[in-house]
Amino acid sequence: MSMIDLLRLIALCIGGYLTGSIPFSLIVARTRGVDLRTIGSGSIGASNVWRSCGFGPFLIAVLLDVTKGFLPTLAAIQIAQLPAPAVILVGMAAILGHTFSLYLGFKGGKAVATSTGVLLAVAPILIAVGLTIWIIAFAASRMASVASLAGITVVTILATSLFAIGQLPLAYTVLVWAAACLIVYLHRSNIQRLRAGTENRFQKLW
């Protein structure tokens, strides 16, 4: 990697982290007079916006969270034209910004929407399949955690399969696995509640 490419990588990683750190869900909820940290699940993720503010604000929040993962990663690919291993560093910087936000004392959301944006930039087919699974799982369970865990599980299996047949670079496969491990880790309290049968279901969707 040339010095120019290295400088581009550093700039994009910093930009990706700072962009990822913007707590869009918290901001959207505040426009409705709601502090996500004191209501619902207490999470600053988009699903708590849905639960606390309704579907419209949720849709805005999730699109913004997806965008903050998508744009830095796309810039690394299309504008800086960085190699795949460098691209995944930019993508992970955005994801870590969302999860450990500079603006929230290094706290944040559970990385699902921002990871979706990153993967949308590198392998859109993964997101098409993952979103389909998310919708099916959510319709069946009415639990965002179940839908998210089901979606990332299928995406990880698909990415590994595509890598095995030479259709996905190793670096992007590693990115999927890294995002999946982080998402599962951040959902550990949800997993405990699922095992105990106490996980919250959405009673009202609209």
Overall pLDDT, averaged?
93
- Gap between N and C termini: 50 Å
CA radius of gyration = 17 Å
Count of individual domains: 1
How many strand elements? 0
What spatial form do the alpha-carbon principal axes imply? Answer: globular
Give the strand content.
Answer: under 5%
Q: Percentage of helical residues?
A: over 70%
Number of helices: 10
Structural class: mainly alpha
Name the poorly predicted regions.
none
Secondary structure layout plus pairing:
Layout: H1 3-20, H2 24-31, H3 46-53, H4 55-79, H5 84-99, H6 112-122, H7 124-141, H8 144-164, H9 170-186, H10 188-196
Task: Please tell me about this protein's structure.
This protein has 206 residues and is mainly alpha-helical. It has one domain. The chain has helices spanning 3-20, 24-31, 46-53, 55-79, 84-99, 112-122, 124-141, 144-164, 170-186, 188-196. The protein is globular, with a radius of gyration of 17 Å.
